[in-house]
Amino acid sequence: MLKSRKKKEIPSDFNTNYDIFMRDCSVSYDGKTVVLKDVSLDLKKGEILGLIGGSGAGKSTCMRVMTGQVKPLKGFIRTANCDVFSQRSLLVQKIGYVPQLEYLSLYYDFSALDNCVFFGRNYQLGASTIKKRAREIMKILGFENESLLKKPVKYLSGGEKKRVSIAVGLVNTPQILFLDEPTTGLDPHLRISVLNFLQKINKEYGTTMVIVSHDLEVADYCTRVAILNFGELVGFGKPKVLVESLPSNGQMLFAKFNQIDIRTDPGRIKEIEGVENVLLAGRNKLKVFVSDISNITPILSKISDLNLELKSFTIDSATFLDYFRIRGKSLETKEFAKKEK
């Protein structure tokens, strides 16, 4: 059972230049089951952080700690250089929030512009100031048509509703924007569109962003990613650097076989000396990660000794998906294999 600290301790490496600074935070809702365990991460001003993981990984809890909605049993957290609990009134002026479900943040009978005005008044902003800000944001988000700005939200498409929700989250010019599953429920084209808009907002205003998502493609738009699995931080850093932390700097053997038994052959190959990881990569295809990619001849020979007929192979670079499969271990191998066919 976790015990909370009696005295708040400021870590020796605390830096006010970070928009998010979290050290050794643990959370348990019932005092017994740990849903977040000793998580430490930080985010510089203007960066985009992706909190990535499967269901129950601890992503939402981690974000709630950052926004002061959940108090950790132990650990240290500063957001926008605020104590998220004792300086909560100041914190809410510095952050914006975009929920997963638009109906939780929008009035569907209001127009996009009216929604921005309504919620902007919570920050003691005048209507003219809000409208000017809203039009500026909505233009970046692709709402250049005046009639679209004034159309009731209930008549907008799913992607348009999502963008209105993002605009509402940005209306107070937040230092940090938190987004909970911003691409959920959107088709592939709209997911990419929303992520491109977020990246554009980030570059235009320098807005720091924290994106909670189970979509791995989000990593391509993030400065850094934090991979959570059952409450533990299993990977944190720049996506490219994380991939290069895999064996042989992220280089691997992409092997095509005449036939393999996915139930047994990947495990048999992994037992070969020098093989670190084996991933399914489609029908009769494997990604083989080895400790020394420059010396694969002995490994190819041992694969042949297993009576596996190798059709062809190439040396290829790993992807962030590969890193997640190896380090995250949140989804079944077969599900990933289907995506890569």
SSE ordering: EEEHEEHEHHHHEHEEEHEHEEHEHH
Number of strands: 14
Question: How many domain regions?
Answer: 2
**CATH class category of the largest domain:** Alpha Beta
- Which strand order spans the largest sheet, edge to edge or round the barrel? 6-7-8-3-9-10
What does the main sheet amount to?
Answer: 6 strands, mixed
Overall average residue pLDDT: 89
Low-confidence stretches: 330-341
**Could you say which overall geometry the principal axes of the C-alpha atoms support?**
globular
Reported by name, the CATH topology of the largest domain is Rossmann fold
What's the CATH architecture of the largest domain? 3-Layer(aba) Sandwich
Q: What would you report as the Rg, rounded to the nearest angstrom?
A: 23 Å
Give the oligomeric state.
single chain
How would you name the CATH homologous superfamily of the largest domain? Answer: P-loop containing nucleotide triphosphate hydrolases
What's the number of helices? 12
Structural category: alpha/beta
End-to-end separation: 45 Å
Fraction of residues in H or I helices: 25-40%
Strand residues, percent: 25-35%
Tell me what the structure shows.
This protein has about 350 residues and is an alpha/beta fold. The protein folds into 2 domains: about 20-240, Rossmann fold; about 245-315, YebC, transcriptional regulation domain (Alpha-Beta Plaits), CATH 3.30.70.980. The protein contains 12 helices and 14 strands. The protein has helices spanning about 60-65, 90-95, 110-120, 125-140, 145-150, 160-170, 190-205, 240-245, 265-270, 295-305, 320-330, 335-340, and strands at about 20-25, 35-45, 50, 75-80, 80-85, 95-100, 175-180, 210-215, 225-230, 230-235, 250-255, 275-280, 285-290, 310-315. The strands form 3 sheets. A 6-stranded mixed β-sheet has the order 6-7-8-3-9-10, sandwiched between helices. It has a 4-stranded antiparallel β-sheet with strand order 2-1-4-5. It has a 4-stranded antiparallel β-sheet with strand order 12-13-11-14, with helices on both faces. The longest helix is centred in the middle third of the chain and has 18 residues, at about 190-205. Residues about 330-340 have low confidence and may be disordered.
